[in-house]
Amino acid sequence: MIQYFSKLRFVSAIISILIGTFATLTFLPVYDVLDECGMINYYNFLEMPLGSLGMSYFRFVLTIFVAIIILAIFFEKVADKKHKKLLDILLEDCEPNEFLKRYEPLTKKSKKLTEMQKVILSNYAVALDAKGSTTNAIKIMEPLVKEPVNKKAYLNQVLFYCNLCSYYCNEDIHDIDNAKIALEKAKDFFLQAENYLKYNDGRFHIEHAQQKIMFLEGDTDAPLKFFLNSLDTAKRKQEKVSTHYLIAKIYEKRQDEKQKIEHLKFVAERGNKMYIATKAREELSKIENNQ
């Protein structure tokens, strides 16, 4: 699963603090000078006339402060829009290679592994998995989930571990033991997170990972029901394509060739350059040649 972030969400907060500090440090010396000159009555300061030098200066600084905050919010929204447009390359266009090429510079911008940088690396790993480089996605996520984490970011950690569990469940990896360990970690962080009862996405990610493990262990009934229902809530094309592929694999295990082909066709037609779309086309070609 992909995560969204705004690069300037943190910047806007920093700007607010800096401007607030600047306003305080700059205004107080002026205030002291005016006070020494007898130009300010401490208790009636806010009642000073508009033409007063102290009050004019105060309102000037306040205006600048508010203007900076408005600009910070504006640029935050611009950054959000730009980032979502970048994510659309993967989530709607289903072009992991193009996404990786454009997204890679973001993975190298910060030397310190902040929570935002973890999200960036996690998104990058999702694209690697979509490309078919699941082993490389695991190499990114395994050390990432072991890094110290702030309690406020526990819900991010839930998604990180669920993604890692999903990679272990990949048909080319098939590592059930590590998948179970990752799932248990996700559950632990979910229960420790603040307001976790309100985090419906967290429950879904955990259940999604759980059903993948159940399928690997031989159960097809519960996973089939879950993933068919998931199609109704899937909002992005990449998510729908991935879900259809899982359903095709379940029908394959149930030896329902007709349903398997139907879902593989969806993947082949809509998956564009995703690895599973290539696999679906190859499999459909083999089926057609054998008929």
Relevant terms:
mainly alpha, 291 residues, globular, 0% strand, Serine Threonine Protein Phosphatase 5, Tetratricopeptide repeat
Give a short synopsis of this structure.
The protein is an all-alpha fold and 291 residues long.
How would you sum up this structure, described in words?
The longest helix is centred in the N-terminal third of the chain and has 39 residues, at about 55-90. This protein has helices spanning about 5-35, 55-90, 95-105, 115-130, 135-145, 155-170, 175-190, 200-215, 220-235, 235-255, 255-270, 275-290. The protein is globular. It is mostly helical and about 290 residues long. α4 (about 115-130) packs parallel to α6 and α5 runs antiparallel to α6 (about 155-170). Among the domains are: about 5-90; about 220-290, Serine Threonine Protein Phosphatase 5, Tetratricopeptide repeat (Alpha Horseshoe), CATH 1.25.40. The chain is built from 12 helices and no strands. The two termini are about 35 Å apart. It is about 75% helix and about 0% strand.
Topology:
Elements: H1 7-36, H2 53-91, H3 96-107, H4 115-131, H5 134-145, H6 154-168, H7 176-192, H8 200-216, H9 221-233, H10 237-253, H11 257-270, H12 275-290
Helix pairs in contact: 1-2, 2-3, 3-4, 4-5, 4-6, 5-6, 6-7, 6-8, 7-8, 8-9, 9-10, 10-11, 11-12
The secondary-structure class comes to mainly alpha
- What value does the average pLDDT take? 83
Please estimate the helix content: over 70%
How much of the sequence lies in strands comes to under 5%
End-to-end separation in angstroms reads 37 Å
- Global morphology: globular
List SSEs in N-to-C order: HHHHHHHHHHHH
Number of helical regions: 12
Query: How many β-strands, per DSSP?
Result: 0
Radius of gyration over C-alpha positions, nearest whole angstrom: 26 Å
Biggest β-sheet description: none
Q: Runs with pLDDT <50, length 5+?
A: 6-10, 27-36, 39-51
